[in-house]
């Protein structure tokens, strides 16, 4: 749905248009930009609070900088809607995150203003530094390199690796720390406490005022201004502040805290800072959800609320004809509490996704036994390993695509030492509207090659519970359970726990000619395909593998000795996935059969509804029907039982 922009915003297609306006118009432009984001996101969905919080910062940056010559890098990118609207995509913004529409994150192929593709957090400082060093090496002059990073993203080790390096490079990098005290859930950790303390500390406020007056006089001082700043800095700050300010100690010049909603002052400050060479950090205080009262009040709920009524703030729920099964994440959350009540060794860990993983259910019920460790996947894994060395049973819940960050930790800290860590990989498979950066496409392939791991995937909620129950038993070793974004299939999922035999799959039905082998939730697509195929006289067998590793060899010997065609279906990359494992089994045991593999092809899949993407990749119900039809022989009658 197309939405009309306000009178000033409708004249702005690119930053050059913005620059035609007077500084005094920036407030009105910010107002219209904020309203435009509200208007579109309310009917289209997407991330919300983060973009509202940086409206003024976005306007100020594009007003003060010379983008795209100056390089502006957004961290995570979920806050970059204003940036998209001001850089040639206002008219397209209604297609944000829609299948074949524009991406919800900055993307290098989408616009020259998107300097770096993002989606995963905490990359901005390293990327901006890389650009700044490249500028130096290429002899480019007067180019600014700006990283805008949130306080949540700043909790990651990667952000500190970037700061640590930038502090000795003397490159032209400005880090803007967008501090709203929030990650998706409230931000956590000692850094957050430090940022709060410098925000309220009197000496820093005094320091901020001193710096502000220096900056105010800068424009009068001309091109040699930075020399004066250095001199004054020396006398104001001395070693005392350097020692007491984390960023100063890392050789950054620290400015702030400043009001991140005072657009005019922000624009002036950014212009002034551009005249100062070397690494600088501007600490901006903003409010996530700014300008939409409910979003300011419940910032977690309004991080990405779905569709809503922009007047009443009512979040719209699509009303299904029948009650929906629960989300896999909620089954995980409730089951954690049940298991932890019975087993006091269990601990829950999430790197900054309490709501997304539903570990918040356990955090509420057992606050000392469920921990949010910040956006720190590597730490989450090694911390879990540490817990496991002491006989505890950590359930470390990480979205499949974010687990890519912690690969070495899985191998080096957990698998080699065969520690009892349970990895619950949520959002495994195609994640939907977040697109290529967030699809959990690779976990099967990248985990399958690691010795000592058990890798499993439940076909429904009961299986998820039973796999969790199985994984927490003593001396099981590292255990991976992968499950997708969204709902399961069972109304009555809360059934008594049952231990599953590791490496054992199950036969769902016998058949003729073709055997379908599935792993995880996509097994339901095969079940759904059956009635249509049966009505045509086609009767494929169906097996749910349940374990990717170890494979159920007995089951596979049965399949290869009975069926001519074997169709594998997985919600993961074909390269190195379950289908590949079946081909390896076939080669290792000298079988010959026609193995047809359905899954994610060797390309990055863009954004859209999950169902659209499953169809595009060719492993939804319809694709299974078509693949089986191509090879199966039609029978007039059949005696097979389902
Ligand atoms: C590596 C990684 N882990 C987790 C996430 C999920 N995530 C997206 S935004 C976000 C919170 C970011 O907080 P902050 O940087 O402060 O930005 P804000 O939303 O507050 O503006 C998280 C945890 C991610 N995108 N990347
Ligand atoms: C930007 C980001 O990484 C998160 O906000 C992500 O979009 C969450 O995804 P879910 O909605 O699947 O929790
Ligand atoms: Mg934040």
From TrEMBL:
Known pathway: Metabolic intermediate biosynthesis; 1-deoxy-D-xylulose 5-phosphate biosynthesis; 1-deoxy-D-xylulose 5-phosphate from D-glyceraldehyde 3-phosphate and pyruvate: step 1/1
Ranges where the Transketolase-like pyrimidine-binding domain occurs: 326-491
Subunit: Homodimer.
Identification of the protein by name: 1-deoxy-D-xylulose-5-phosphate synthase
Family statement: Belongs to the transketolase family. DXPS subfamily.
EC number from the UniProt entry: 2.2.1.7
First-tier enzyme category under EC: transferase
Biological process annotations from GO: isopentenyl diphosphate biosynthetic process, methylerythritol 4-phosphate pathway; terpenoid biosynthetic process; thiamine biosynthetic process
Cofactor-binding details, from the entry: Binds 1 Mg(2+) ion per subunit.
Binding site for Mg(2+): 151, 180
Binding site for thiamine diphosphate: 78, 119-121, 152-153, 180, 292, 377
Organism, scientific name: Pedobacter frigidisoli
Gene Ontology terms, MF aspect: 1-deoxy-D-xylulose-5-phosphate synthase activity; magnesium ion binding; thiamine pyrophosphate binding
UniProt KW keywords: Isoprene biosynthesis, Magnesium, Metal-binding, Thiamine biosynthesis, Thiamine pyrophosphate, Transferase
Cofactors: Mg(2+); thiamine diphosphate
Function of the protein: Catalyzes the acyloin condensation reaction between C atoms 2 and 3 of pyruvate and glyceraldehyde 3-phosphate to yield 1-deoxy-D-xylulose-5-phosphate (DXP).
């Amino acid at each position: 749905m197309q939405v009309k922009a306000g009178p000033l915003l409708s004249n702005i297609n690119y930053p050059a248009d913005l620059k035609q306006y007077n500084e005094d118009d920036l407030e009105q432009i910010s107002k219209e930009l904020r309203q435009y984001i509200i208007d579109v996101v309310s009917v289209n969905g997407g991330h919300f609070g983060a973009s509202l919080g940086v409206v003024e910062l976005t306007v100020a940056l594009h007003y003060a900088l010379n983008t795209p010559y100056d390089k502006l890098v957004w961290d995570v990118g979920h806050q970059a809607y204003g940036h998209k609207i001001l850089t040639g995509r206002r008219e397209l913004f209604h297609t944000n995150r829609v299948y074949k529409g524009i991406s919800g994150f900055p993307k290098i192929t989408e616009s020259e203003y998107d300097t770096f593709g993002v989606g995963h957090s905490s990359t901005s400082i390293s990327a901006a530094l890389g650009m700044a060093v490249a500028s130096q090496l290429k002899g480019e002059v007067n180019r600014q390199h700006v990283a805008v990073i949130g306080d949540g993203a700043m909790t990651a080790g990667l952000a500190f690796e970037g700061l640590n390096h930038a502090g000795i490079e003397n490159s032209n990098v400005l880090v803007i720390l967008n501090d709203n005290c929030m990650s998706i859930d409230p931000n956590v950790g000692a850094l957050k406490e430090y940022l709060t303390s410098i925000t309220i500390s009197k000496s820093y406020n005094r320091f901020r005022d001193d710096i502000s007056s220096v900056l105010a006089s800068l424009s009068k001082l001309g091109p040699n201004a930075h020399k004066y700043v250095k001199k004054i800095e020396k006398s104001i700050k001395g070693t005392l502040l350097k020692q007491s300010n984390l960023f100063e100690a890392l050789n950054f010049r620290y400015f702030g805290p400043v009001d991140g909603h005072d657009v005019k002052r922000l624009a002036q400050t950014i212009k002034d800072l551009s005249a100062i060479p070397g690494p600088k950090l501007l600490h901006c205080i903003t409010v996530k959800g700014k300008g939409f009262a409910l979003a300011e009040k419940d910032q977690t709920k309004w991080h990405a609320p779905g569709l809503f009524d922009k007047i009443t703030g009512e979040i719209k729920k699509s009303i299904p004809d029948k009650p929906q099964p629960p989300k896999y994440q909620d089954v995980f959350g409730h089951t954690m509490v049940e298991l932890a009540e019975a087993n006091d060794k269990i601990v829950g860990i999430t790197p900054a996704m309490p709501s997304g993983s539903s570990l918040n259910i356990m955090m509420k019920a057992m606050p000392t036994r469920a921990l949010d460790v910040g956006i720190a996947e590597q730490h989450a894994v090694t911390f879990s390993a540490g817990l496991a060395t002491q006989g505890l049973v950590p359930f470390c819940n990480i979205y499949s695509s974010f687990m890519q960050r912690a690969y070495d930790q899985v191998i080096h800290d957990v698998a080699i030492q065969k520690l009892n860590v349970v990895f619950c990989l949520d959002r495994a498979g195609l994640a939907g509207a977040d697109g290529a950066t967030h699809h959990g496409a690779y976990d099967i392939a990248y985990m399958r090659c690691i010795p000592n791991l058990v890798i499993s995937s439940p076909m429904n909620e009961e299986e998820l519970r039973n796999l969790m129950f199985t994984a927490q038993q003593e001396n099981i070793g590292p255990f991976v359970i992968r499950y997708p974004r969204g709902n399961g299939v069972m109304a009555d999922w809360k059934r008594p726990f049952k231990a599953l035999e590791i490496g054992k799959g199950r036969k769902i039905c016998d058949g003729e000619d073709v055997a379908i082998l599935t792993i995880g939730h996509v097994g339901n697509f095969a079940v759904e395909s059956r009635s249509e195929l049966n009505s045509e006289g086609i009767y494929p067998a169906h097996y749910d593998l349940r374990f990717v590793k170890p494979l159920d060899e007995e089951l596979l010997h049965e399949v290869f000795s009975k069926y001519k065609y074997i169709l594998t279906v997985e919600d993961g990359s074909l390269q190195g996935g379950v289908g590949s494992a079946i081909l390896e089994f076939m080669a290792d045991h000298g079988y010959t059969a026609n193995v047809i593999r359905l899954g994610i092809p060797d390309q990055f899949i863009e954004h859209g509804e999950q169902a659209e993407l499953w169809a595009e990749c060719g492993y939804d119900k319809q694709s299974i029907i078509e693949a089986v039809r191509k090879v199966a022989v039609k029978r007039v009658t059949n005696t097979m039982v389902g």
